[in-house]
């Protein structure tokens, strides 16, 4: 069986070597040695000033929304994983959707200003599939209207834009280290900001607001990760060169062998060093998508409809029509993309797909 992704497993010996340290320390969580080491290594790997590792990629969005004092209306993208919208609603804010760009699939920055009202406090956009939003335009709009910017950068591990980490953009960026993501800690995630004061605030918030054992700085939640997960992160991180090289191999094969006259693929934004995180294909209509999906499923190949449905149609949302996002969501399929996907698998996927267009 071939799924859309397959979690990268380091060797059990590599994981055990990290676990040995935990047993020696007799310390399982609360920012132990492995968590601190993983933060240091990630800071160097990503070239970022600050990082705060968290328990997943959703809680950090909620922490950022809470901490930046946000309420009211949040301008956001309808084309993302459900966590982006759910975090907004969970924090008692109102998502205001702005449609996406038909090629980049990120929020359409030219439509943001029309959606701003006196209740707007923030723009929460996703670098979907690791493709950067138009960060300069978004920053200019945020300045003009005095809005905060949060990027859901769950897919964007290792992406650089204009030769710097994409995590450097916005007031806060968040990432997910879930097992299905490019770099993982089984469950995990991170918060990024360039603002040292904000970094301190984020730090308190992810640990119940504790300021030492007896005092509290403010309201907080539990956003911490354990040493067991940090151990996985350390073991996986040492394989990033191979992970990226093998994912690029798969992406190159698809680019060279799929019938690109019949399908649309992701347009990566200029000046981006991408991370090969997903391979979405957009069919001419949903019927074609369903035909391709059925043919692949028959031979135990399971691509995923990332992202369906368009988030403006969720049952707990006051639906507004988002023509581009709804159209793309109905026609987009993410093909299998992982390190061990071999040449035979790739040939089979491509020939079935091309034959069913
Ligand atoms: C995976 C994902 C999340 C959530 O991350 P978790 O670590 O599973 O909580 C948030 N946003 C996007 C766009 C994602 O793909």
From TrEMBL:
Pfam families: DegT_DnrJ_EryC1 (PF01041). Keywords: Aminotransferase, Pyridoxal phosphate, Transferase. It comes from the Bacteria. The keyword Cell wall biogenesis/degradation does not apply. Transmembrane segments: none annotated. The keyword Transferase applies. SUPFAM superfamilies: PLP-dependent transferases. GO terms for molecular function: transaminase activity. Gene3D superfamilies: Type I PLP-dependent aspartate aminotransferase-like (Major domain). Belongs to the DegT/DnrJ/EryC1 family. PANTHER family: PROTEIN RV3402C, TRANSAMINASE. This is DegT/DnrJ/EryC1/StrS family aminotransferase. The lineage of its organism: Bacteria, Pseudomonadati, Bacteroidota, Flavobacteriia, Flavobacteriales.
């Amino acid at each position: 069986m071939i799924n859309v992704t397959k979690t990268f497993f380091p060797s059990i010996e590599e994981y055990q070597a990290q676990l040995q340290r935990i047993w020696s320390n007799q310390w399982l969580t609360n920012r132990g040695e492995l968590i601190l080491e993983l933060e240091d290594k990630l800071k160097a790997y990503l070239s970022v000033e600050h990082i705060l590792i968290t328990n997943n990629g959703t809680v950090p969005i909620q922490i950022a929304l809470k901490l930046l004092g946000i309420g009211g209306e949040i301008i956001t993208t309808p084309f993302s994983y459900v966590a982006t919208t759910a975090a907004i609603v969970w924090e008692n804010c109102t998502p205001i959707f702005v449609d996406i760009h038909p090629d980049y699939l990120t929020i359409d920055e030219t439509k943001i200003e029309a959606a701003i009202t006196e209740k707007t406090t923030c723009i929460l956009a996703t670098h979907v599939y690791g493709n950067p939003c138009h960060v300069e335009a978004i920053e200019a709009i945020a300045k003009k209207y005095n809005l905060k910017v949060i990027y859901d950068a769950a897919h964007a591990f290792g992406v650089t834009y204009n030769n710097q980490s994409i995590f450097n953009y916005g007031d806060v960026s968040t990432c997910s280290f879930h097992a299905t993501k490019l770099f993982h800690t089984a469950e995990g995630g991170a918060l990024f900001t360039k603002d040292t004061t904000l970094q301190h605030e984020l730090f308190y918030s992810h640990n119940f607001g504790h300021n030492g054992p007896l005092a509290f700085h403010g309201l907080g939640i539990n956003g911490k990760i354990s040493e067991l997960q940090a151990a996985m992160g350390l073991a996986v991180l040492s394989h990033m060169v191979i992970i990226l090289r093998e994912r690029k191999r798969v992406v190159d094969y698809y680019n060279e062998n799929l019938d690109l006259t019949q399908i649309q693929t992701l347009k990566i934004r200029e000046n981006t060093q991408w991370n090969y995180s997903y391979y979405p294909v957009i069919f001419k209509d949903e019927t074609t998508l369903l035909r391709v999906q059925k043919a692949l499923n028959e031979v135990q190949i399971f691509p995923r409809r990332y992202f369906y449905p368009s988030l403006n149609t969720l049952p707990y949302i006051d639906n507004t029509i988002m023509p581009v996002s709804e159209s793309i969501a109905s026609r987009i399929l993410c093909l299998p993309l992982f390190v061990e996907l071999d040449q035979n698998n790739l040939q089979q996927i491509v020939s079935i797909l091309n034959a069913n267009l």
